[in-house]
């Protein structure tokens, strides 16, 4: 199923706003995805990623804004728009008492697939997710990685125009994680539009053609990885693994020359610094003076995580 | 409808693989019905019968009335009239061996009506009516004594002498005198109109029906609670993201709950009919009552579950409500016999209407189920509409 609009985009959304009581979960979010493009929503937990994709997938009503999938307006009642979307929820969404084939057949029928078409597509997907040999075993007997693959397979079954994956690698072992990432790369190469949410910078860097950095319900920056990194300039990220009075230390380090950003993290202090290697002795001395005990230092050249720190004043994985 | 059926068949497939469904839907009600049934079966099949010999040495109108109006009117009693005391004693004598082959006719007890019995009774003089029991038929001999005592209580001049041929104990006589004196009542039978209020199922059918409706509430609740389970499992997101309506999802759940309810009751009915000889009554009337009961159970469980946030909460709430309604509705004992407010209050429970419908059906024609069926449907419609409205609003990931 390949459908695009006159503008050429599979997904177009703008001004999405959603409140839960007094909490504004999403405020003015908008972006678009072209066929074959993988778009990443990168942000920490609670940034509004899941609310955004729930609105895009038609699970939630929005308070304001527009969403269209392949030219069809999306809302919870829109069966036409929903036909174009494949959803892979963050948590496993499979029936443990059913085997892989039964799970796939059930969801295929919900999307109107029947008979030979359904059987053939189920076989294809079982091949893609490498579960053909275990297709008749109850999914409750599968390993965590196998369940994750089945979770993705269900989303792929009806050949959606837009595949939405909500943090599909959370809690997955490295081997299965790599397999999932490879699958997503292949889907993009096959022309499927993919919306991928994650808080893992390296996943976004590896998979996504364009990235939207989301925090506190708003898109803070958007573009290709190169475009985003240029926003930070030629600055490096310095991570101090440290203990002591981190708040006072971060404030003191932020006042040093060439230190543009400073933030407390779970295990120390993160800094955005121009030409970090030249400034390291001064940074360490200032940290010691403010009562911070530094156990280790990591220096990363400019990347998305540095950008996130630059944009939000917070580390991506706080 | 096709989508709803797809969801229903998926639910049923899951249900078939869930052992707890068999326990709640079939095993538990069947086991309890069997336990109650086997416990009650001997009483159900018990029919009193006794053979009493009479030697009427008096031959008066009074002695004839005792034989014809007292002994012959007692249910299950066969009377053998003999000419001599020796003939009578020969019928109640035994060798004390209960397994010994008995040749010829025997009697469980012998009444010896002495000469002058009628004249003495009419002149209120004391007279002796002798009962000789058969030691090998202690129970029936005791009842013979009870019959005589009942007669004597009306005629204060008659004294009962109890004797045994071989070892009939007075305590046995006393036991049966107390328990079964009603057989001795010498008054004509009173024909009483039995209204719908007093119709009753036999013991086995009563408990089979009681267990069926009691556990029905637990077996159909999964239709609603499975929506909550789907939300907890994350699969509800997938259902809501699919190009189907919420109504299809709810309808699918209702179809599967309805079918599970019908099948569980049907299995119980067939099993208790075959194993325990339960008499459920006119199949058409029973089918109407069962369908209405299933719908009422679905409605009430939907309403209760609409207040729950998780499947576990819903299960707990339905369990409490099911037990209260079950007891109130008389599924374990006939609360109608308690009288008073309890008897009246039972009709707030659909269980009571189901039980009453079956009871009425056992003694009436098909038309008697109309009211219970309509009331059950009203229960289902009202509670179901309220419950589904609440569930529909809450149908979100």
Key features of this structure:
heterodimer, A: 318 residues, alpha/beta, Rossmann fold, Alpha-Beta Plaits, 6-stranded mixed sheet, 4-stranded antiparallel sheet, 11 helices, 36% helix, 30% strand, elongated, B: 397 residues, abc type-2 transporter like fold, 5-stranded mixed sheet, 16 helices, 8% strand
Explain briefly what this protein structure is.
Chain A has 318 residues and is α/β, with parallel strands linked by helices. Helices cover 36% and strands 30% of the residues of chain A.
Report the sheet with the most strands of chain B, covering strand number, pairing sense and barrel closure.
Answer: 5 strands, mixed
Low-pLDDT parts of chain B are 96-102, 166-198
Radius of gyration of chain A: 22 Å
Quick check: average pLDDT of chain A?
88
- What number of domains of chain A? 2
> Total number of helical segments of chain B?
16
Strand order of the largest sheet of chain B: 2-1-3-4-5
Order of helices and strands of chain A: EEEHEEHEHHHEHEHEEHEHEEHEH
Strand neighbour order, sheet with most strands of chain A: 6-7-8-3-9-10
Would you tell me the overall average pLDDT of chain B?
Answer: 80
Q: Provide the β-strand percentage band of chain B.
A: 5-15%
Helical/strand content category of chain A: alpha/beta
Residue stretches of chain A low in confidence (pLDDT < 50, at least 5 long) are: none
Number of extended strands of chain B: 5
Tally the helices of chain A.
11
The greatest interface here is: A-B, 30 and 22 residues
State the CATH superfamily name of the largest domain in chain A: P-loop containing nucleotide triphosphate hydrolases
- The top level CATH class name of the largest domain in chain A: Alpha Beta
The proportion of residues forming helix of chain B, as a percent range, comes to 55-70%
Principal-axes geometry of chain B comes out as elongated
């Amino acid at each position: 199923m390949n459908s695009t609009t006159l503008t050429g985009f599979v997904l177009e959304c703008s001004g999405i706003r959603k409140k839960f009581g007094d909490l504004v979960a999403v405020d003015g979010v908008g972006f678009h995805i072209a066929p074959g493009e993988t778009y990443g929503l990168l942000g920490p937990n609670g940034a509004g990623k899941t609310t955004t994709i729930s609105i895009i997938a038609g699970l939630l009503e929005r308070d304001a804004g527009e969403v269209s999938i392949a030219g069809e307006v999306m809302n919870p009642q829109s069966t036409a728009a929903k036909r174009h979307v494949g959803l892979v929820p963050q948590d496993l969404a499979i029936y443990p008492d059913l085997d892989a084939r039964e799970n796939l057949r059930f969801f295929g029928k919900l999307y109107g697939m029947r008979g030979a078409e359904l059987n053939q597509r189920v076989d294809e997907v079982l091949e893609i997710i490498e579960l053909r040999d275990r297709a008749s075993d109850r999914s409750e007997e599968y390993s965590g990685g196998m369940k994750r693959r089945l979770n993705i397979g269900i989303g792929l079954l009806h050949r959606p125009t837009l595949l939405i994956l909500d943090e599909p690698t959370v809690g997955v072992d490295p081997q299965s994680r790599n397999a999932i990432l490879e699958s997503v790369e292949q889907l993009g190469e096959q022309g499927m539009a993919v919306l991928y949410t994650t808080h893992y910078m390296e996943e976004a860097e590896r998979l996504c053609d364009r990235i939207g950095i989301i925090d506190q319900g708003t898109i803070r920056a958007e573009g290709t990885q190169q475009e985003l990194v240029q926003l930070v300039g030629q600055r490096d990220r310095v991570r101090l693994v440290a203990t002591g009075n981190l708040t006072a230390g971060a404030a003191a380090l932020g006042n040093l020359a060439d230190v543009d950003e400073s933030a407390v993290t779970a295990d120390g202090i993160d800094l955005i610094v121009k030409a970090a290697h030249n400034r390291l002795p001064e940074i360490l001395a200032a940290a010691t003076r403010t009562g911070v005990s530094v156990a280790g230092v990591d220096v990363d050249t400019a990347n998305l995580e540095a950008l996130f720190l630059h944009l939000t004043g917070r580390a991506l994985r706080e | 409808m096709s989508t709803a059926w797809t969801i229903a068949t998926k639910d049923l497939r899951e249900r078939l693989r869930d052992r707890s469904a068999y326990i709640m839907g079939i095993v538990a009600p069947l086991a309890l019905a069997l336990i109650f049934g086997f416990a009650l079966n001997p009483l159900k099949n018990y029919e009193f019968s006794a053979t009493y010999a009479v030697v009427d040495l008096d031959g008066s109108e009074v002695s004839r009335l005792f034989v014809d109006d007292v002994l012959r009117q007692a249910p299950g009693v066969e009377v053998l009239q003999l000419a001599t005391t020796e003939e009578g004693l020969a019928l109640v004598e035994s060798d004390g061996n209960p397994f010994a082959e008995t040749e010829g006719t025997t009697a469980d007890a012998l009444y010896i009506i002495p000469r002058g019995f009628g004249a003495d009774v009419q002149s209120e003089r004391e007279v002796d009516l002798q009962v000789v029991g058969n030691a090998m038929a202690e129970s029936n001999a005791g009842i013979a004594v009870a019959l005589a005592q009942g007669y004597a209580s009306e005629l204060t001049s008659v004294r009962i002498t109890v004797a045994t041929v071989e070892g009939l104990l007075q305590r046995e006589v006393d036991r049966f005198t107390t328990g079964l004196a009603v057989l001795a009542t010498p008054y004509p039978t009173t024909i009483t109109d039995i209204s719908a209020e007093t119709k009753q199922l036999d013991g086995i059918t009563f408990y089979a029906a009681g267990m069926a409706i009691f556990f029905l509430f637990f077996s159909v609740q999964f239709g609603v609670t499975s929506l909550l389970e789907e939300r907890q499992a994350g699969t509800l997101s997938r259902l809501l993201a699919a190009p189907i309506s919420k109504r299809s999802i709810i309808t699918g759940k209702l179809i599967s709950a309805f079918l599970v309810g019908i099948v569980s009751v049907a299995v119980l009915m067939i099993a208790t009919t075959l194993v325990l000889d339960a008499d459920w009554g006119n199949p058409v009337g029973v089918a109407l009552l069962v369908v209405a009961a299933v719908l009422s159970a679905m409605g009430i469980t939907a309403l209760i579950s609409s207040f729950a946030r998780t499947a576990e909460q819903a299960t707990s709430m339905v369990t409490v409500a099911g037990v209260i309604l079950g007891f109130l509705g008389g599924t374990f004992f006939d609360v109608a016999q308690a009288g008073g407010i309890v008897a009246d209050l039972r009709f707030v429970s659909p269980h009571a209407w189901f039980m009453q419908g079956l009871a009425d059906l056992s003694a009436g024609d098909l038309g008697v189920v109309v009211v219970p069926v309509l009331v059950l449907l009203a229960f289902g419609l009202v509670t179901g509409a309220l419950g589904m409205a609440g569930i529909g609003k809450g149908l979100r990931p």
